[in-house]
Design a protein that fits this description.
Transferase(Phosphotransferase), domain 1; single chain; six-stranded antiparallel β-sheet; alpha+beta; 2 domains
Length: 323
């Protein structure tokens, strides 16, 4: 049996995948779809009430926690392998990276059962993955509805936290995300200091052979990847630079604009060198691209956790974006 992508598009509210009850679609893509879902338990009447409420409004962080909501990712035919790769990656995420990455459902809410499975429907096999539901807007949503200037300090805070999470992935897992973009970054509870990375289906081990097909949004793909280069930290640095440039307004600190430009340097070797040690740096307050130097004064951006403060970064990673 094969997966029918048409079937994925029309799964009704109340449809059962394993022990999860689908509520409403929350994400569509060319290769997979994501549904908000309820876990088992609570009684039929309560579950119907919860499903009706959650289908018409975005769940708050409090509701997501109370109902232990899930995000069920269903793979299309071209993404089945990526779904299993994502499960493998998220299963081995170390504690140091956990705060900044989406979690497998049963890592977030321990209970019996499986986070990845196959369900048969109308002669098709649906391959699906259960993840925690992260309540909050994506950076893409924020950028799409922006009507004025974004606070530069918020932009710097979110990029600094993302850089520290990415650096931990590079160091501890020897993994490049390779699909960094605003749609794959969710602000947990709307907090700019708590960005969460999602969608690890296209991530690869550093130095691995390049896949025949390159997936992602072209704007955020590093040029060397299009030429067949092996996955490297420089590819994620490039995407972070593009995202930062989208978040910054003209009146943002000069150093922040310089960082965005340096991170988008076309040559990956020059990119890493420019990030690690900008030639015109005269700062004595820590790494040139530290929080204090980017903002111009101390104490204006708080760290999401003590994890990023304890990072011992390598020069080949996104270390100089960390603080």
């Amino acid at each position: 049996m094969s997966t029918s992508f048409a079937a994925i598009n029309h799964l009704p509210a109340g449809f059962q995948l394993g022990d999860f009850t689908l509520i409403t679609p929350i994400g569509y893509g060319g290769r997979s779809h994501v549904y908000l879902a309820l876990p088992p338990g609570g009684g039929t009447k309560i579950r119907r009430w919860a499903a009706a409420r959650l289908s018409v409004s975005r769940p708050t962080p409090e509701l997501a926690q109370r109902w232990q909501l899930a995000a069920i990712k269903i793979a299309g035919p071209a993404a089945i392998g990526d779904l299993y790769d994502e499960h493998t990656v998220l299963h081995r995420v170390p504690h140091a990276c956990a705060a900044g990455t989406v979690a497998l459902y049963r890592r977030r809410y321990p209970r019996p059962g499986r986070d990845i499975a196959i369900t048969a429907i109308n002669g098709a096999s649906l391959h699906w993955l259960a993840l925690e539901y992260v309540a909050g807007p994506s950076l893409a949503e924020i950028l799409n509805r922006r009507t004025g200037q974004l606070d530069a300090q918020k932009a710097i805070a979110v990029i600094a936290q993302l850089a520290c999470t990415i650096d931990q992935l590079h160091q501890h897992m020897r993994l490049a995300h390779l699909d960094l973009k605003p749609a794959n970054i969710i602000l947990r509870g709307g907090d700019w200091s708590k960005p969460v990375l999602i969608d690890f289906g296209t991530s690869q081990n550093l130095g691995a052979l390049q896949r025949k097909s390159i997936y992602g949004t072209e704007r955020y793909i590093a040029p060397e990847r299009l030429r067949g280069a092996a996955p490297s930290p420089a590819a994620d640095i490039y995407a972070l630079g593009v995202i930062l440039s989208e978040l910054l307004d003209a009146d943002a600190p000069t150093a922040a604009h310089e960082l965005a430009a340096a991170a988008r340097t076309l040559n990956p070797t020059q990119r890493v060198a420019a990030i690690a040690a900008p030639p015109n740096s005269t700062s004595n307050s820590g790494p040139y691209w530290s929080r204090d130097n980017l903002i111009g004064r101390k104490g204006d951006v708080s760290c999401m956790s003590n994890v990023s403060k304890d990072v011992s970064c390598h020069a080949t990673s996104s270390q100089s974006l960390c603080f």
